[in-house]
Amino acid sequence: MGIFKDFKETLDEYHPIKENSTPLNYKLDDNLEEIKRTLGNVNDLLCRELKLKGAGGVKVAVLGIDGLINSDLAQHYIIHVMAVDLSMVEEDSLVKNQDAFDAIFNSRISMIDAKTSKLKEDLYRNLLNGHVIVLVDGVCSFMMFDCKGWQTRSIGEPDVESSLRGPKDCFVETIRFNTATLRRRLKDPRLRFDTHIIGRSSKTDVFVAYIEGLTNEKFVQIANQRLEELDVDGIQNTAQLMQYIEDQHHTIIPRLFETERPDMVVSGMLAGQVAIFVDGSPFVVLTPFFFTGIFSTMDDYYNHPLFASLKRVMRYICALIVILAPAFYVSVSTFHQEMIPTAFLIIMMNQRESNPFSTFFEMFLVYALFEIMREASLRKPNALGNAMSIVGSLIVGQSLVEAGLVSYAAIIIGSITTLTTYVLAHTRISEATRILTLVFMIIGGWLGFYGITVGFIVLIIHLCSLTTFGEPFMSSLAPMNLMDQVDQILRLPLRWMKQRPFAFDSHNRVRQNLQPKMEDDTNEG
Length: 525
Known about the structure:
Order of helices and strands: HHEEHHEHEEHEEHHEHEEHHHHHHEE
Strand content: 5-15%
Structural class: alpha+beta
Mean pLDDT: 84
Strand order of the largest sheet: 1-2-4-5-3
Number of helices: 15
Number of strands: 12
Shape: elongated
Low-confidence stretches: 1-18, 517-525
Radius of gyration: 31 Å
Largest sheet: 5 strands, antiparallel
Helix content: 40-55%
């Protein structure tokens, strides 16, 4: 206990680094020298010093980072404007420096995204974020113009969440492209973006998106509060952010959902969810996220209700197969041989007579090999192609059986388990079920059906104890709400989904009103 106490005291004594919020100096040369010294005299800092004609020769400096700014844009709209005769102020004006600053910002440079500030913190953050900085000698303020020009990935088809009938576009790594994609689909003036800058070093832009008047303010407040409390070196993507802001539970069950599909984000926000965008990540976080959302996909709403319901039920069954199939095989082979038909039992005995290992070790070996092949297929160079993985799997499986290390039954169970993991709708639940497969397999090999039953009950209790942004994780199922069951385990017709899910606690629960209008048969006059 003393180790944990010392560790906690060390955390309590930690103080975050304070940002540089001091104002600029009035002297241009001193400011330039400090900027170059702070950045370490880097070779990608562009600095152009000018003397303004028509403004008494006031000195100005234009700063930008090579590769982050559009040089042509900066040259045409900023440097070219200040290089000509401006005739802005009188030569003998006592405040000509400030007048020159005001004239440049207010009437000369015609860029829509233009701001001024006095703080060094704003200067460095915007300079390193693709803005052009303009400093004027004798003025402690500076101008910043958005001239971003770095290379970006074009919008393509989703790589992780394939779409059969839905839209084929996806989010990219540039956050402004993603917000524009959202606005193109959600043309609602109530759409709001709360801005946060996360990371002492990365200065990552994080946006909390929601529909005002529709999304419950509690979820928005929780999201903003948890983001404001973050004090880390940097955030690179949504996967890291989710680990910081999700409800603190020791669990492998995902309670936040990330997607790269814009239609999924729009659907979630219209239901009452909050979307969190992270600059540099092609995924968007949706919260709160409940249990039944694990087994639904956006393509369910593009298919016939009967076909969508069948596929959704199939996902529930596949989740049970992934978790319990290896455990049942180990348990039956070890403790409950009387449940196996005699003919099949004889076949299994003939296959296993040369196998020196127990059924549990045999199944564990198959499980480990499938996980190794799965990881190898992800990490292998693209030049090798998929043929290497397929041929390698066949050779390894056949060799294990012929060597007598595993039986055909173990290979079949392992193959079925691996295939069913890909049927599950989301990658994170697939990862969680694979861990549960190993846990239940150990319990089944130790305690048999009794252990599997107790373990499954413990799993259900654990699911009921989880929360997502303060809401019960299982609230989409219990307490039972009949109106919500039209889109939980089954996907009933869209016309029946008249209200938003009760679990999201939206202020405006009416989703659609398809009642025919009553005709007015009264005759006036």
